[in-house]
Amino acid sequence: xxxxxxxxxxxxxxxxxxxxxxxxxxxxxxxxxxxxxxxxxxxxxxxxxxxxxxxxxxxxxxxxxxxxxxxxxxxxxxxxxxxxxxxxxxxxxxxxxxxxxxxxxxxxxxxxxxxxxxxxxxxxxxxxxxxxxxxxxxxxxxxxxxxxxxxxxxxxxxxxxxxxxxxxxxxxxxxxxxxxxxxxxxxxxxxxxxxxxxxxxxxxxxxxxxxxxxxxxxxxxxxxxxxxxxxxxxxxxxxxxxxxxxxxxxxxxxxxxxxxxxxxxxxxxxxxxxxxxxxxxxxxxxxxxxxxxxxxxxxxxxxxxxxxxxxxxxxxxxxxxxxxxxxxxxxxxxxxxxxxxxxxxxxxxxxxxxxxxxxxxxxxxxxxxxxxxxxxx
Length: 377
Description:
By secondary structure, the protein is an alpha/beta fold. The chain is 38% helix and 15% strand.
């Protein structure tokens, strides 16, 4: 079944006895068993729920995995994955990551987890950091917020050589544009809050595993921690996925147009978008993904201009998060990466002149005009 059709029709049969086209919301904490020796498939919604199970099966199929577990947030999903490891284990991670992930990894370091944060696009550097207690490599590609690209195939080959797990956050490109499991990853993580849901109206996270054995491990910690995805939120995410291909195509087209416009402005000193041919990760992204996504970050000429843009935008909204139908601009130093020490932010270029743009589905002409008036007003 083609991806577009699968998003709308994850199963051929109707979901319940009444023939509902939309998956029903099973808003129940517990389920009745038919007898001592005849237990039902479901017992308690922290463990599993029919609405969530339906969505998990869909996301698993979209990513080409063999197991999927839904979580209340993307951060809950990441936390659960790292519950599979133990004190003194070592991990290699991309140096540029979502601030929430970096915050989590700092707390894990307090529990004697070891991390090396490096440029994972440099395969020789990655190999040089592998130690006897290294257990996994964790990457975002493109990364948040600098849009750095890592070659998933090359990292996968390295992981196989040293018997490591490869964990990939695929939030930015979604399985519509990129399928890390088919490129050699072992675990894929999503903040379903973003593009999968697509409407900025709910929170969700997913862990998709290449093998059922890994999936069973994730499920064990999921039911132990209890940060499960609620039935109603599962319903909203599944509804969002129905239009995922349409939204991603429009967002991708808009982002290319906006990045091309910004690139020509003298006041934009640097632009990070993997869909621009002069981006360092352009060719690698092209080799492993079918699109570039909707995330752009820019460095403007002054703090005054950054603040002016945020104050003057009308269609764009100054807000945290990303991946919805609405176009947003974020000030990472005050929002997504506020918990990073200043010296770390400055070293990455996440400073008072740095903005992150999440492109939505509005008219690209209107979005460009909005940026133009915000810059030159």
